[in-house]
Amino acid sequence: MAIRLTDPAPAAGNLPSPDAHPDIRHDWTRAAAEALLALPFNDLVFRAQILHRRYFDANEVQLSTLLNIKDGGCPEDCKYCAQSARYDTEFKAKKLMDTAAVVAKAREARAAGAQRFCMGAAWRSPRDHELDAVCAMVAEVKALGLETCATLGMLSAPQAARLKDAGLDYYNHNLDTSEEYYGEVITTRTYRDRLDTLACVRDAGMKVCCGGILGLGEGEADRASLLVTLANLDPHPESVPVNMLVAIEGTPYADNAPIDPIDFVRIIAAARVMMPASVVRFAAGRLTLDAATQALAFLAGANSIFYGEKLLTTPNPEAREDRELFARLGLRPMGDGSAPA
Ligand code: SAM
Ligand code: DTB
Ligand code: SF4
Predict the structure, then answer these.
(1) 83: burial class by Cβ within 10 Å (0-12, 13-18, 19+)?
(2) What is the C-alpha to C-alpha distance for residues 116 and 144, in angstroms, rounded to an integer?
């Protein structure tokens, strides 16, 4: 069964009638995505919730913990980023962390209840000796029984194959925004470069984690366009992080206005409808939203969060606060067992 935008909203408690469109499709148009985003909020969230329940346990949320294994000094010019060497931010370049220190952090994340450990590096793309070190980290983190994820910048096909061989489950590489708006945000690599890296990751047999950021000054059409590009990837990314801009002092986007949380929830819901079997992550920005708004995001189909007090360079809610939020909402960590109290 699938839902068509032209269908009347189904009565509460009833599933929509079958029709010709499968739930999982790769022929989205910007007009269809814009129509989805323009639905009355309750109708959009209801559609998202139906699909969410068809593919997932609606009370389970996947927990990923992030660690920045290489801070700052990045040559790229992403206008949102604390770690670009081009902007005068408080984050200075450091060396790549030691494997032992990374593994210690992964153990802590596992003990706190994380299922996935995501290692980020402020690189345009890794050099060979850097990739050797990351492969060693991936193998050791995997041996702890955690799912592994890395975000290291652009990859070639042989680099992707090496990470896969080391045991990397997911590679995160975001499209960030629409192809049309992209040039406003980053000039040092192209949209095509990003799509090429995603193809290398897919061809190497890894799962794709790919999403974007809201609050870069993009318009409604750009948000729809980003969703269309993501949803027309075949297969869909297994993980779709939706970030709210964390405005960083010293970057060109330091003074960007925060996005309307209701618009944020709409994007989550539209991502759920357009990629129903993907895990949709409510990624950066949770610290600025209250429990009720976060609850709305889960209702709209978000089923993953970054878990642990730090993202890459900026704070995230404390693990204890998230455990309390889960208890209030009756949510459980996805997979095997619950986070310790
Ligand atoms: N250097 C690598 C790259 O850019 O591919 C990996 C790390 S990079 C920091 C990973 C992603 O984090 C970016 O593509 C962006 O989507 C997100 N991100 C970075 N800074 C952010 C910010 N200030 N607010 C929200 N999301 C951000
Ligand atoms: C993603 O989509 N969001 C994460 C992760 N992938 C690497 C990064 C968020 C960064 C937020 C700003 C910071 O902490 O520097
Ligand atoms: Fe570098 Fe990644 Fe930051 Fe862009 S987002 S400046 S590539 S660390």
Answers:
(1) buried
(2) 11
pLDDT tens for each residue of 13-45: 333 444 557 899 999 999 999 999 999 999 999
Residues 6+ apart with CB under 8 A from 128: none
pLDDT digits (tens, 9 = 90+) for 269-326: 999 999 999 999 999 999 999 999 999 999 999 999 999 999 999 999 999 999 999 9
Q: Is the CB of 312 under 6 A from ligand 2?
A: yes
Q: State the distance from the centre of ligand 1 to the C-alpha of 81, rounded, in angstroms.
A: 6
Q: Is 229 in the pocket of ligand 2 (CB under 6 A)?
A: no
Neighbour count for residue 180 (Cβ, 10 Å): 15
CA angle 313, 318, 244 (to 5 degrees): 50
Amino acid at 137: M
Closest ligand to residue 242's CA: 2
The domain limits of the chain are 32-332
Omega before 126 within 30 of 0, i.e. cis: no
Topology (CATH level 3) of domain 32-332: TIM Barrel (3.20.20)
Q: Residue 70 pairs with which residues in a beta bridge?
A: 121
Q: What is the pLDDT of residue 15?
A: 39
Q: Quick one: which atom of ligand 2 is closest to the CA of 80?
A: 12
Q: What percent of the chain has pLDDT over 70?
A: 92
| Residue among 31, 8, 30 nearest 19 (CA) | 8
**Using CA atoms, how far apart are residues 65 and 106, in angstroms rounded to an integer?**
8
Q: What is the pLDDT of residues 226-259, one digit of tens each?
A: 999 999 999 999 999 999 999 999 999 999 999 9
